[in-house]
């Protein structure tokens, strides 16, 4: 029977012990949460709903989103934007999420499982931490046209 250690365990067992990034082990869990009223004219294809600013050095283990019915065949993507509003990847976390859904974790719907523990700047494709914030946003992928609520609960970890 074999045993495979994660980097966290290998670092812990090393002599001398190697310090792990506290965002990956014993970091501080934070929450960004709220509800946004999405106006009828803001649920059309390519409309953007900026959900929350997340520190560039944070890891994001969960992104929970729910919405009312926005009409039509509305779906939305969940992705990353720079704090100036420039898109990084509009469907990094999730693509074509149906509206009128109960609160669900969409963090790994489209993102590869090997992004677990990656920081926002790494997921955004930066070569180094630029500091500051990235936005997690929902981008409408198909037209809605009806007003409704969108709620979110984003868990992130900082060291």
Radius of gyration: 18 Å
Write down the overall mean pLDDT: 93
The rounded distance between the terminal residues' Cα atoms is: 35 Å
Q: Strand sequence of the main sheet, in spatial order?
A: 1-8-3-6
Say what the CATH topology is: Jelly Rolls
- Are there runs of 5+ residues with pLDDT below 50, and where? none
Report the β-strand fraction as a percent range.
Answer: 35-45%
Proportion of residues in helical segments: under 10%
Task: Count helical runs.
Answer: 2
Shape annotation: elongated
Q: Give me the secondary-structure category.
A: mainly beta
Total individual domains: 1
Q: Secondary-structure element order, as H and E?
A: HEEEEEEHEE
Major β-sheet annotation: 4 strands, antiparallel
DSSP, total strands: 8
CATH class membership = Mainly Beta
CATH architecture: Sandwich
Q: In a few lines, what is going on in this structure?
A:
The chain has 159 residues and is mainly β.
Secondary-structure map with pairings?
Blueprint: H1 7-13, E1 28-38, E2 48-55, E3 59-67, E4 75-82, E5 87-98, E6 104-105, H2 120-123, E7 133-142, E8 148-158
Antiparallel strand pairs: 1-8, 2-7, 3-6, 3-8, 4-5, 4-7
Could you explain how this protein is built, in words?
- It is built from two helices and eight strands; from the N terminus they run αββββββαββ.
- A four-stranded antiparallel sheet has the order 1-8-3-6, with no helix packed on it. Strands 2-7-4-5 form a four-stranded antiparallel sheet.
- The chain has a single domain, classed as Jelly Rolls.
- With 159 residues, the protein is mostly beta strands.
């Amino acid at each position: 029977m074999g045993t495979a250690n994660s980097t966290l365990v290998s670092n812990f067992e090393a002599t001398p012990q190697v310090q792990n990034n506290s965002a990956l082990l014993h970091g501080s869990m934070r929450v960004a949460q709220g509800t946004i009223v999405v106006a009828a004219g803001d649920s059309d294809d390519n409309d953007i709903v900026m959900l929350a600013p997340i520190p560039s050095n944070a890891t994001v283990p969960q992104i929970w989103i729910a919405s009312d019915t926005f009409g039509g065949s509305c779906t939305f993507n969940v992705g990353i934007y720079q704090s100036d509003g420039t898109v990084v990847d509009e469907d990094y976390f999730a693509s074509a999420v149906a509206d009128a859904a109960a609160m669900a974790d969409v963090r790994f719907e489209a993102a590869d499982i090997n992004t677990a523990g990656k920081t926002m700047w790494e997921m955004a494709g930066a070569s180094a931490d630029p500091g500051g914030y990235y936005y997690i946003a929902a981008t409408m992928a198909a037209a809605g046209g009806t007003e409704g609520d969108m709620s979110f609960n984003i868990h992130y970890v900082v060291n």
